[in-house]
Amino acid sequence: MSSENRGSARKVVHVAVAVIRGEDGRILIARRPDDKHMGGYWEFPGGKVEEGELITAALNRELKEELNIEAGHFQKLISIRHDYSDKSVYLDTWWAEDIKGEPRGNEGQEIKWVELKELPELDFPPANGPIVTAALLPTRYMITGRFNAAAELLEKVGYQIEQGVELVQFRAPWLDEVTYQHLARELHHLCKEAGASLLLKGGSELLVNTWCDGIHLTSEQLLQEETNWQSSSRPDQWLAASCHNQEQIDRAVSMGVDFITLSPVLPTDSHPGCEVLGEAKAAELTERCPLPVFWLGGMKLTNEAKLIDSGAQGIAAIGAFWSQVQ
Ligand SMILES: Nc1nc2c([nH]c(=O)n2[C@@H]2O[C@H](COP(=O)(O)OP(=O)(O)OP(=O)(O)O)[C@@H](O)[C@H]2O)c(=O)[nH]1
Ligand SMILES: [Mg+2]
């Protein structure tokens, strides 16, 4: 057995992967040649990073070699470490935009532009699932805060959707189940009209077989053994979970959760006195997590660019979205 194939001791291949987004929002994918690893699958173009090479240089080198194009702008999307039976890869994945040149398959490979929403239907290598999820998710995840009347809730969420929010979690632990369900229906109607998705957070009886766009589990619900959340939700529904440490992240991964929130990254008014992770620890946990991670707790919209550079999907917040005066 060669040294490359000795289980966890084997070399991890650093791969630069580009999710190429054209001006019309479509994504350029390519078919992997049959004679290559994962041959026949669709891929996001890219290839191995050379010794000492900067990631953005590697991305543009691969784009030139494989497609005869260059990207003027890169933004971190997600990193995935995946162990295939014969090889371990670290897929260092970036949005590539501001495309210069007309793409062609330099290696004779089939290429095509597809809509974002088509990605889940296509056959990608097994490591690519979280890349597709990350590409589909927005960078902002709004969590509802305190409200007195239904009108206030609907107005605040409606306002944020107008500002560009596409993903909303309805959290209202002080309400009884009947009132929560009623408001959730109203909120879902509002979100649906505007093209946003609504996730529910609450007691387990509320979440099983939900009619909504998805559910968000607390870390306690995540660790409970009784419910198989994967099988109680449809493939087109989001399954998200709150994580605070490595053990909970491992559980989320093994359960097949789509994405997580990691908290509290910084001190927050909604959970005073909670022990915070700090940005360095959050970045470390995010780097090792093969799922999209929203940072939560004390996050401001002005932190967004920095935390995306740290590998996070984006910001989850109550305060940053809720406190804004209209
Ligand atoms: N480019 C790319 N590689 C991927 C994806 N998903 C995935 O598992 N991989 C794996 O990443 C590894 C490296 O990618 P590659 O074969 O494109 O490397 P390369 O362009 O340098 O090719 P080469 O081997 O001809 O030098 C392969 O084992 C491939 O199976 C993906 O979406 N895009
Ligand atoms: Mg390649």
UniProtKB/TrEMBL annotation:
Residues 10-137 form the Nudix hydrolase domain. 8-oxo-dGTP binds at residues 32, 37, 43-46, 128. The keyword Metal-binding applies. InterPro entries: Aldolase_TIM, Mutator_MutT, MutT-like, MutY_C, Nudix_hydrolase, NUDIX_hydrolase-like_dom_sf, NUDIX_hydrolase_CS, NUDIX_hydrolase_dom. Mg(2+) binds at residues 46, 66. It is an enzyme of class 3 (hydrolase). Its cofactor is Mg(2+). It catalyses: 8-oxo-GTP + H2O = 8-oxo-GMP + diphosphate + H(+); 8-oxo-dGTP + H2O = 8-oxo-dGMP + diphosphate + H(+). CDD domains: NUDIX_MutT_NudA_like (cd03425), TMP_TenI (cd00564). Keywords: DNA damage, DNA repair, DNA replication, Hydrolase, Magnesium, Metal-binding, Mutator protein. GO terms for biological process: DNA repair; DNA replication; thiamine biosynthetic process. SUPFAM superfamilies: Nudix, Thiamin phosphate synthase. Pfam families: NUDIX_4, TMP-TENI. Its EC number is 3.6.1.55. GO terms for molecular function: 8-oxo-7,8-dihydrodeoxyguanosine triphosphate pyrophosphatase activity; 8-oxo-7,8-dihydroguanosine triphosphate pyrophosphatase activity; 8-oxo-dGDP phosphatase activity; 8-oxo-GDP phosphatase activity; metal ion binding. Belongs to the Nudix hydrolase family. This is 8-oxo-dGTP diphosphatase. It comes from Endozoicomonas numazuensis.
